[in-house]
Amino acid sequence: MIDLHYWATPNGHKITIFLEETGLSYQLFPVDIGNGEQFDPAFLRIAPNNRIPAIVDHAPTGGGEPISLFESGAILLYLAEKTGALLPTRLQGRAEVLQWLFWQMAGLGPMAGQVGHFTRAAPHPIPYAIERYVKETARLYAVLDKRLADREYIAGDYSIADIASYPWIVGHIRQQQRLADFPHLQRWFETIEARPAVQRAYAIGREAVARHVAA
């Protein structure tokens, strides 16, 4: 059983998508980041960086004590290795997936996140910051669009590289991006959007958040 400490953010969605794709048994523990629940001491023992998602694996491979883990990329890699799914075992394929996983973690997520901050959360508009991060997000969209020009998925077969990147493209309108400007990316996005596991992951997340807020 996997305990998933979660909120309905792009990084949170990564993990529910993986879990739904692979069928691993898990339980959601919502962490309302809008109300500061990420600073609860019990959560900080699992995720000292006070960010979601975080997991506790009560049945780690090989046995032993439960393993707790934070950082969405690290969680995806851990779960892929645990299940033997969505990550190639051959060196070249594995390297392809990992470089694009880290590309998302270091580039696409942070830059798109800054667009969201400066357009929606900053107390006052800062035109320079908005322009900078919108343009950098567009550049990263173009990198991914070019990558997808001759392949169905980012690293060949569907993998944790796709699962990591997709939730950050869901917010393209808020990021001031037009998918029509990136036709290969748009095709990829619509393909993943239609996957049953992806649809389940988003529905489960919405329901969990709604119950938690109403409680």
Give the count of structural domains: 2
Residues in helices, as a percent range: 55-70%
Put simply, the count of helices is: 8
**In CATH terms, what is the architecture of the largest domain?**
Up-down Bundle
Radius of gyration: 17 Å
- Number of extended strands: 4
State the strand order across the main sheet: 2-1-3-4
β-strand percent reads 5-15%
Class of the largest domain, according to the CATH hierarchy? Mainly Alpha
Order of helices and strands: EHEHEEHHHHHH
Rounded to the nearest angstrom, the distance between the terminal CA atoms is 24 Å
Structural class: alpha+beta
Overall outline: globular
> CATH topology of the largest domain, anyone?
Glutathione S-transferase Yfyf (Class Pi), Chain A, domain 2
Mean of the pLDDT scores?
A: 97
The major beta sheet can be summarized as:
4 strands, mixed
Low-confidence stretches: none
Could you walk me through the main structural features you see in this protein, from its secondary elements to its overall organization?
With 215 residues, the protein is an alpha+beta fold. It folds into two domains: 2-86 and 197-214, Glutaredoxin; 91-195, Glutathione S-transferase Yfyf (Class Pi), Chain A, domain 2, CATH 1.20.1050. Helix content is 57%, strand content 8%. The chain has helices spanning 10-22, 41-44, 72-83, 91-121, 127-147, 160-170, 183-193, 196-214, and strands at residues 2-6, 26-30, 54-57, 67-70. The chain has a four-stranded mixed β-sheet with strand order 2-1-3-4. Helix 1 links the parallel strand 1 (2-6) and strand 2. The two termini are 24 Å apart.
